[in-house]
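Sanity check

After download, print the first record. It should look like this:
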Amino acid sequence: MSGGFYESRVFPWLNDRLTAGPSLAAIRAEAVGSARGRVVEIGFGSGLNLAHYPASVQSLVAVEPSAGMRARSRERIAAARFPVEVIEGVAERLPLPDEGFDTAVSTLTLCTVAEPELVLAELRRVLRPDGRLLLMEHGLSEDDGVARWQRRLNGLQRVVACGCNLDRPIGQLVQRQGFRFESVRRFYAPGMPRTHGWVTVGAALKGV
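Expected structure tokens:
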């Protein structure tokens, strides 16, 4: 189910259907609620976070590799309260200057990128010294039984969800790249299977 029509047309629609519900919308609002200044968002998708950014956001650079997702985002971008610049690219190689952003945002993206460690290093690079990473990610559960099922299902998940992984330890990945959590909450998202719904929501400081 990879490539071509599925990735460009079917999956963007399916992804919106699965991630635009009210329970995840509330979690998105919590995740990005403290964004400020110049923001870079990786894995921008169809722009589902735009409605939840606060008035403290001045502008946003949206990085999204999928043409299908970028096409679905146009209407939401037109309605945004602040300027949005969309860049076609991958988060492992951000075409952005060092220390140019106050806030970096990643929601349901670290599960899918090819090299999450490199992505987090890039986000750290483009953040100002007092910058913060805001995230909402699903990943490896702290429950051993759920984690075993996540590993069993991961191969299938990667096929049907265009590279999405169920078994990445999000908190550990973030901290290994030099970020320090200022706040973090881990829980099962309401209405989602436990294998897919173990969510980490947090704000991490770039630090020194």
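If your output differs, re-run the checksum step. Summary of this record's structure: The two ends are 43 Å apart (CA to CA).
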